[in-house]
Each structure stands twice: as structure tokens, then as C-alpha cells.
């Protein structure tokens, strides 16, 4: 385990009694609340948390932000949040972005496109316009996609150079199928864009049930090598990550991966990149 308190850049909380989550499936189709996270993360020293939107019904996106502020009273380590917004509406999304930007703790937006059947969905003009608009409100963008959409995502990033972006879950490579290319080359290409950083998060979830550390290491090493410690941040992705690994287990695995780095580089990955990107 790290010898210092960490910052987790990717925490989910939800309660199906309060909001609708159309994507939910067992065993995730129940409430996961601050008390549950405290129990699941026992033994890990955590200084701050960044809440990530949970793909609630889009008409409840602002309601989710308000609910997070209530949860933050119970869990004061929630220092920032990334909210959902209908960026596919282009400039018509600006009213919602203005409302979010005026909300306490909001630092960015995530609009998931990983399940869009069109691999180039993120390059549609209205979607690009919605992402570009984030810069006008001081908001960042979390990129949530699957590896077949990575090439199109590079095009999205090129079209929005003024928007700080972070690649969630190292672009969900095809680990279960043993696929390394073209994902690896595309991650390296994406890393050339200086407005993009990367989360070491959600990696085990992309592996088959019988995965080992050796299964994940080559993919994590590609991301670390491409972005470097100064542009990598730790993300727990709890509770989705529990489909494959415990919370302390994921922290320990990342700590093992970066064991040969300097103390400064370790702190960068486990703390400082997230603190800087999300303005904690």
C-alpha cells in the first residue's frame, strides 16, 4: 500500500430509490452509498475523492449533482464531482453547462459514448460543439469509451484542443480477448495531445474472470509509458471495479506496478495529477 494518503479520482455512488439508472445489472443494481464505500475501502488512507457521474437518466443529471452535495455532507472527502450533460445537443447544452458550472464542487463533465453503435459518434458536429463549449465554463471532459472508439476519440481531442481531458479506464482495452493492437499504438498517439491525461482505473473489469496481475500488467505499462507519471492519476472505479477486484486489492496492484518509480512519481500518480486536474 502507498505510504501516504491517496486521492481517488473516480468514485461512484448511487441509490436506485432516488434516481433512475437504465444500465444497471446484478450485482450492481442496488444502492452503493458513502457508508458502503468506507467499509469497502477500510485499510486504505484516502485524503480526497472525486465523484464521477453514474449514467443516471439524462433528465436527472442535475438531480444527481444535487444528491452528491448531500452525500458530501456525510462523506466530506468528496472534494469534486464530474457530472453528466447532454453534450450531443451541441450549443443547446450550454444552459445545462452554465447551471452545472455554478454548482459547488463541479469540475467537469462526462458524457459516456462507449455503447454508441457508431464508432465515430464522438466526431459528430453537435457532439464536438458540446465538448468545445466546456472550455467556456471552465469544465474538463472525462472520456469514457471502449477501444474500438479510440481512433475517433483522437479526432475529437484534436477538434477540442482547449478542453482539458482525461482518458477513463485506459480506453477499456480488449483484455479478455488478449487484444493489444491497435489499442496500444492509439493510446501512444493520444498521449501526444498535451491536453489529455489518463486514469489508471477500471482495468481489471475488462479482463476475464480468471485474470492475474500478469494479465493486466502489459496494458497498464503501455498507459504509464505513454503518458508518464505526471499525466497519470489513480482511479478506484468503485463499485464497478468490484466485479473483478476489491478496492484495497486494486490500490495494492497499482502500487505494485509503480514500485520502481521514485517517491515523487508515486505521489504524482496517487495524488498530485488528480489534485491538479480537478483543482482540488
Summarize it.
With 280 residues, the protein is α/β, with parallel strands linked by helices. It is built from 9 helices and 8 strands.
Question: What features would you describe in this structure?
Answer:
With 280 residues, this protein is of the alpha/beta class. The protein has a single domain (6-277), classed as Metal-dependent hydrolases (TIM Barrel, Alpha-Beta Barrel), CATH 3.20.20. It is built from 9 helices and 8 strands. The protein has an 8-stranded parallel β-sheet. Strand 2, helix 2 (61-74) and strand 3 form a beta-alpha-beta unit. Helix 5 (150-159) runs parallel beside helix 6 and helix 6 (183-190) packs parallel to helix 7 (213-227). The longest helix is centred in the C-terminal third of the chain and has 15 residues, at 213-227. The protein is globular. The model has no long low-confidence stretch (mean pLDDT 98).
Amino acid at each position: 500500500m502507498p505510504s501516504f494518503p491517496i486521492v481517488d479520482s473516480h468514485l461512484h455512488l448511487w441509490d436506485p430509490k432516488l434516481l433512475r439508472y437504465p444500465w444497471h445489472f446484478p450485482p450492481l443494481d442496488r444502492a452503493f452509498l458513502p457508508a458502503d464505500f468506507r467499509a469497502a475501502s477500510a485499510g486504505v488512507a484516502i485524503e480526497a475523492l472525486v465523484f464521477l457521474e453514474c449514467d443516471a437518466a439524462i433528465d436527472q443529471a442535475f438531480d444527481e449533482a444535487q444528491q452528491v452535495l448531500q452525500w458530501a455532507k456525510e462523506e466530506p472527502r468528496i472534494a469534486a464531482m464530474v457530472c453528466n450533460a447532454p453534450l450531443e445537443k451541441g450549443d443547446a447544452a450550454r444552459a445545462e453547462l452554465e447551471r452545472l458550472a455554478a454548482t459547488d464542487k463541479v469540475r467537469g463533465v462526462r458524457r459516456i459514448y462507449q455503447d454508441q453503435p457508431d464508432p465515430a459518434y464522438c466526431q459528430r458536429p453537435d457532439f464536438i460543439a458540446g465538448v468545445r463549449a466546456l472550455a467556456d465554463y471552465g469544465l474538463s471532459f472525462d472520456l469514457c469509451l471502449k477501444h474500438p472508439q479510440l481512433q475517433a476519440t483522437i479526432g475529437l481531442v484534436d477538434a477540442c484542443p482547449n478542453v482539458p481531458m482525461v482518458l477513463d479506464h485506459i480506453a477499456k482495452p480488449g483484455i479478455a480477448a488478449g487484444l493489444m493492437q491497435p489499442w496500444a499504438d492509439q493510446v501512444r498517439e493520444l498521449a501526444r495531445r498535451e491536453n489529455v491525461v489518463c486514469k489508471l482505473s477500471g482495468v481489471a473489469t475488462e479482463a476475464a474472470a480468471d485474470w492475474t496481475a500478469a494479465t493486466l500488467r502489459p496494458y497498464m505499462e503501455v498507459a504509464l509509458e505513454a503518458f508518464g507519471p505526471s499525466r497519470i492519476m489513480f482511479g478506484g472505479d468503485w463499485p464497478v471495479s468490484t466485479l473483478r477486484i476489491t478496492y484495497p486489492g486494486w490500490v495494492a496492484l497499482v502500487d505494485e506496478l509503480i514500485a520502481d518509480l521514485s517517491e515523487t512519481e508515486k505521489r504524482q500518480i496517487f495524488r498530485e495529477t488528480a489534485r491538479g486536474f480537478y483543482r482540488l
